[in-house]
Design goal:
The protein is α+β, with helices and mostly antiparallel strands. It has a domain of 114 residues. A hairpin with a 2-residue loop joins strand 2 and strand 3. The longest helix has 13 residues. The radius of gyration is 20 Å and the shape is globular.
Amino acid sequence: MPKGRRDSAYPAFGDELLRGKKRSEVPHEFVLDALSPLSPLTRPMFGCLAVYVEEKIMLILRDNPRSPGDNGVWIATTKEHHESLRGELPLMRSIRVLSKATTGWQVLPADAPDFEDAARRACELILAGDERIGKIPKRRITGESRPKEPSRPAATRHGTRSGAR
């Protein structure tokens, strides 16, 4: 009696359970590749991916199809550095989704014609130690004032994930 053949077009029951949760794509992953000499850490934040170098948050990588106007590379900076950074990153503008006229955060919009070149230039500035980019996040204490150190979410070191790309 011939053995039955499994039709490969249909997965066996439970195959999807064995694969586990699908890892979401890293938006603008070339930015992490460019910063790899600094061993950046990444953390999910507001549906985006925050990029840290040591204790500083440097960038946020955003690709949100529901609100694409501010997709791109968000740069952690301060208002006093906007003008000088715009000299090197002319695409840089305020982030509209934050609903404030001007914040410390700025964006290199993904829909700009030379977005990747501008994002790579921002990475070059970070690699060179440009003090205009990066902020040390303020520590938050939840609930009543507690003397203990607040916990920080687990971070992912770029390049150590299995199956990246």
